[in-house]
From TrEMBL:
Record protein name field: Dipeptide transport system permease protein DppC
Organism: Desulfotignum phosphitoxidans DSM 13687
Keywords: Cell membrane, Membrane, Transmembrane, Transmembrane helix, Transport
Family: Belongs to the binding-protein-dependent transport system permease family.
InterPro entries: BP-dependent_transpt_permease, MetI-like, MetI-like_sf, OppC_N
Subcellular location as annotated: Cell membrane
Amino acid sequence: MPETAETQTTKKTKKVQLKDMFAILFSSKIAMVGLVIVLFWVFVALFAPFLTPYTPFEQDWKAPNQGPSAEHILGTDELGRDLWTRLIYGARVVLVVLPVSENISLPGGTAIWGVVVALMIGATLGLIGGYKGGWIDELVMRLLDAMMAIPVILLYLIIVVAIGASAVNVVIAISIVGVPGIARLVRSLTLDIKTREYIRAAETRGESAWFIMFVEILPNTRGPIIIDAMLRIGYAIFAMGTLGFLGLGMPPPSPDWGSMVAKGRAFILTGNPYAALWPSLAIASLVVGLNLLADGIREESMRYQ
């Protein structure tokens, strides 16, 4: 079936938008540094089984708490498990795979799933509140304000303690904590966009409120939402590390970065800081990389406006 002129125009517009997006990305040195850091962790997470001869649970009883060596390039933990292996398999849980159960896993890491679910719920609430206004907006915003009044770390602890520690429950906790901020962002964008002429035109055509919110308004909020999502993935990774450190993250013997730090800190003063050092650097570098990527894109986007 031949393409219509409208379809060809839409394809050209998408190509131009994609080209502009890459132009913004590559023109920012800060964003490129962040991108390299993030891509490194994505690469090692994707190809973890090919980057190490060990499994994350394999123990070498002859070499517990050892420093870097030819056999174990980053050293071993208190059980003789290879730290490099546990580090890159931990990255898989964060960025690539969500372990639902022992036999079931979903593509997409725990932190990413948490932010995606929060985006879906928060964006919907923000669109409804911002477009509808009135008592609906007041009700939604006051409930979200009440959630934001609770300190974030305390809210994480309450949720995880209430429903238990697992990858799926960590996703639920990240989602609940992230919803208020995303909803407020989308609401503020919606309040601005709904005054535009093309929204008035859609209303004049008799389009439904749901069509206007999700087809006309939501696509025009994607820039700020994408940047905010990158930052939130970093916050989610930091939250996973905090929960793991407190023993409320991934259940053992999962290679959770936070729990690795918690167990490794007991051996810092005995001359083996590596078990705590490497996962700490992993968390810090990935969060910093995401923040640099988001900040660089945001700065360049403002220059292009």
